[in-house]
Amino acid sequence: MIVNESRIGRRFVVLLHRGEEVSATLRRLCERENVRSAWVRGRGVLEWAEITEWDSAREAFRKARRIEGPLGAAALEGNVSIRMGPIDLQLSVVVTRHSERGIETLASTLVAASAVRLE
After folding, report:
1. pTM of the predicted model, to two decimals?
2. d(CA 68, CA 115)
3. What is the mean pLDDT of the chain?
4. 7 Rama sector, left if φ>0, alpha if ψ -120 to 50, beta otherwise
5. Distances (CA, A) of 91 to 8, 72, 81
């Protein structure tokens, strides 16, 4: 088990605009501000998202699927950590979209996404 106690806390409120790639933008922020561990929360609207899920039989993530939007990002949750040097960003997302069947909801691991407006 690895345990680190945080005695100092910082909070960043971030607004991503149209066309900004979510993971890359958050990684740049962490590098610039020397963030070594963090929780991430957000919601907003995405232009598109690539999502995947864990395949427990293979013990690997499945091939990512691109979902075209606009997508409502009802919940974006995750964490930032430093694992062997580079920033490791793990994000889960719940997205909604309108279709001919009504409103669809998808929840999975976020690989990449482009923001319309995301806080």
Report:
1. 0.87
2. 12
3. 93
4. alpha
5. 23, 16, 12
